[in-house]
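Example record

The entry below shows one chain as it appears in the dataset: sequence first, then structure tokens.
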Amino acid sequence: MMNNALRLGTIVIAWLLLWSHGAAAEDPPLTENVPISEFQNRTEDAKVYDFDAPPQGMFRSIALAEDFEERLGFQRSHEIVPVKPTERFFPNVPAIFIVFLLHQHYQGFTVFGRCMPEQVDGAIPGTIVSEDAMHIALEDDSGYLKLSPPSGGWLPGRYKVEIHVGEQINETSLMGTMRFTIVTSRRQPD
């Protein structure tokens, strides 16, 4: 009988301790009719993605260059790096390269580049004058696009290149825009 009374006393004390802890801790007050925007990402905190700037996200880096070089990378992979990066080219440049490094990806895709005049005398803005595409395999972490001169050569002025990613170019594949200038002075032979 003594054991049962001891057990009952222990249970009552344990229950009182638990109840006192619960009574000491206060629940936060309930708020009624709070706008849903306070529970979601606030628009003033969100960074707007700029499709009119160089691509970000999956691109670690992207640059315009006169040429590219292939090197053996850190993990014994082929790494494509820009040679003479610039945003100013001469009209007699044989090609303009867009060289990029990618973050890790889990699927193959294609990178597209569409070049069009933006501020070029004698050219209609928005007309595609050069384009290229490169398929990126699962193991690739770099690549390049080669923009060949249009028929008649590069006219002096400002050009923009839309960078698209996916299986085809559509209204949702645009990742960003690169810009370069063809300068009027001629390059002297090396």
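Notes for this example: The beta strands are 59-72, 78-85, 88-89, 96-102, 109-120, 130-136, 142-147, 157-166, 174-182. Residues 59-182 form a domain with the Immunoglobulin-like fold (CATH 2.60.40.1930).
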